[in-house]
Amino acid sequence: MPTRLVVGISGSSGALYGIRLLRVLARRPEIETHLVLTNPAKRTILHETEFTIPEVEALATCVYDIRDIGAAIASGSFKTVGMVVAPCSVKTLSAIANCYADNLLTRAADVTLKEGRRLVILLRETPLHLGHLRLMRAVAEAGGVILPPVPAFYHHPKTIEDLVDHTIGRVLDRFGIEQGLVPEWRGSRPPVPARRHEAAVADRCAPAGRVVEAERG
Asked: Which CATH entry fits the domain spanning 3-174: 3.40.50.300, 3.40.50.1950, 3.40.630.30, 3.40.50.1240?
């Protein structure tokens, strides 16, 4: 059975995150992507990107109507590795936090949590007030992962896609899917080989050892 991942795109700014995730996984035939778009998401895609809705939908293995609560991803018996909501609006976050499954995206998210599967939320909002924080806490307590798309710069990004890829790489890491987008951090200095490390420890300890012996004498 191929690896199935549900992808939800809601209407907040940052539609490029969901689109980039689909583009990356479209090159992986062993992974099925099951896409559901909210109506505000479609509007945001047209406003923020150069993609048409049919072009975005063509990136997924399967596409579902947001109103189709009888779709496969609405049932826990449909086996998946989990779900990503990228990006996630506060409205969608609120529905997930309060188990308000009034459309297919929030129903699929609720199913993901109740089945003990991984739900990753890319919340796109700032600044955050107390109500937002309480919603995030509720989802985290239910087993979800709050993964805001916060860019990092230690990999020296040159383009917007570099910044987006850093977040998408971290998302795929959560599902154990090899991503190849961002190399793992190996530290700011090269690791010391084991034998060199032991020798260095011995060198540092030797003077202290001689002092102890001298004091004993």
From this structure: 3.40.50.1950
5 token code pair: 């991942």
Extract the tokens encoding 154: 């230690």
Residue position matching structure tokens 């001689």: 210
Taking the C-alpha atoms of residue 156 and residue 142, their distance in angstroms, rounded to an integer, is 35
**Tens digit of each residue's pLDDT (9 = 90 or more) over 161-202:** 999 999 999 999 999 999 889 888 878 776 667 665 555 555
**What is the pLDDT at residue 184?**
81
**How far apart are alpha carbons 145 and 177 in whole angstroms?**
16
Strand-by-strand arrangement of the 145-146 sheet:
62-64, 31-37, 3-9, 82-88, 118-123, 145-146
Distance separating alpha carbons of residues 48 and 125, to the nearest angstrom: 16
Q: Once rounded to an integer, what is the mean pLDDT over residues 126-153?
A: 97
- The pairs formed by 143-147 with CB atoms below 8 angstroms and a separation of 24 or more are 143/113, 143/116, 143/119, 144/96, 144/113, 144/119, 144/120, 145/118, 145/119, 145/120, 145/121, 145/174, 146/121, 147/120, 147/121, 147/122, 147/171, 147/174
Q: What residues does each domain of the chain span? A: 3-174
